[in-house]
Amino acid sequence: MGHILVLSGAGRYADDIHDFDATSEAVSQILTERGHQVEVRRSEPEALDHLADADLLIVNTGGGDPEEEWDYIPEWSRAHNKILEHHEAGKPILGLHTACNTFCDWDLWPSVLGGKWVLGVSGHPERSYAVFEPVPEAADHPILRGVEQVVVYDERFSDLDINPLATPLLFHETGEEFHAMCWVMGNNVVYDGLGHSSRSYYSASRRQLLCNEVSWLLNWKRREAAAQAAAQVSPDPQTV
Predict the structure, then answer these.
(1) 6 has which bridge partners?
(2) Which of 39, 140, 195, 219 is the most core-located residue (most Cβ within 10 A)?
(3) Does residue 29 sit in helix, strand or coil?
(4) Residue 17 within any structural domain of the chain
(5) Is 62 part of a structural domain of the chain?
(6) Residue 81 placed within a domain
(7) Cα 191 from Cα 169, distance rounded (Å)
(8) For 14-24, how does the pLDDT look when each residue is reduced to its tens digit (9 = 90+)?
(9) pLDDT in the model for residue 222
């Protein structure tokens, strides 16, 4: 079980479309029922003051006011650096829904998350009941264990700019095209594009996906140790 900090959209990283308070509460309730210690903090710079104490950061924030100029705010620059320190220490991050379109004043965020929403290119159809399926090449990934498909009332993000180093896990087919909706970036970052409203979390398959993501992320130390052990026992090709 882990200590989880949910950064919930407010102020600079809120918008008029998403009820971040409701979706963050839904996430908190689901994970608390699974035995995790969950703290929800609205997105102000001081919300990240004690990020070092958290085992996992969940980013559930948005793109702010599109009319706003992204002027430099020293307090937020320091807060972004705390997220970067968390990431560089190997500690995990889960980005939900509009996490692909948040922190627009922080150039490094898309490289941390593994992708981004591109204004004028990315989009989605109207919300509806939709089916999201495992990417065949990733069907054996632990995050997809017990998840044959996700059926949920939500949005289908399309044409996101995804880092080629990311591993897509879940996709939807819209307009006869396939679009990745969930991916893993490295050993400690997951992006999950579901979660427009609290209604998304009514779906049992969606809740299972969320819990699998959190479990996998919290096991990052074990994966890191296994990788290091494998590297130590691998023969040096120059001596074989």
Answers:
(1) 40, 58
(2) 195
(3) helix
(4) yes
(5) yes
(6) yes
(7) 10
(8) 998 999 999 99
(9) 87
